[in-house]
Predict the 3D structure of the following.
Amino acid sequence: MSGRFTLVAGGAASGKSEFAERLILESGPLPRHYIATMEIFDEECRARVARHRAMRATKGFSTVERPVDLPGALLPPGGAVLLECMTNLTANELFSPNGAGSAKAAEASILAGVDKILSTCARLVIVTGEVFSGGNQYAGDTDTYLRLLARVNRALAARADEVCEVVCGLPVWYKSENEVFV
Amino acid sequence: MIFVTGPLYSGKRAYAQKILGCTEQQLPARAVWDVQEQAAAAPDLAALADELARYEVVIATEVGAGVVPADPAERAAREAAGRLACLLAARAERVVRVFCGLPLPLKGGLPE
């Protein structure tokens, strides 16, 4: 089995999360899993995460925390999976003490994790950030991070059945199996 | 001329190689890239656009969608880059935006 996969990109506060969630809700009465990627540092993070978990629970999502090591995510097969956000997961793999460390290892871990989920889920939606249009003068860690995220985004786009960029809550489709979609 | 634009590291040069059917080594003879960096120093943007339009493919990275830079020179460079992109798009038979490696036609449809 290989689930239908949509990659949802967008800038900050573009409405990408809400749109991605809608794609999952519209995918039918499948068990819903949310893969959360935020690393929890303190009480403020914990409170934020608890609030988001409660919000999603009302929509039937179970939450799996995966700030690093996506291949270690344990998901029952056949569900609808929403992973948010690739920008966090990539940063954590690169910079967190628990992360993969190098850009190469980070990319391998993330893509292996996505392939594993794709092989067992019925539906996958991944949210990623469009952070590449504000300049090109980056150096050091920032440039390493941007290059890694761009490689991951392109690899995901190649695997995806559909790719869109959300602008003001509306999707611009770059790849679409079905033109009349949502 | 085909004008290819898109975010940083989105696969614009790989796309140019694909549509020109050429290797990375052959690309400099047929395409020019990072043209946004030539904008700031150009005394005449229209003349620069005319000159660049002699290439089969002209590639620019989008740099104008962030916060306005505090530094005046950076502000001016970003402004010039945006204006150059508009001038190139006006001269192009086709304009394609590459996003995550995927081409989106903005003008004239996608090349064969």
Observations:
- The mean pLDDT of chain B is 94.
- Chain B touches chain A through 22 residues (CB under 8 Å).
- The radius of gyration of chain B is 14 Å.
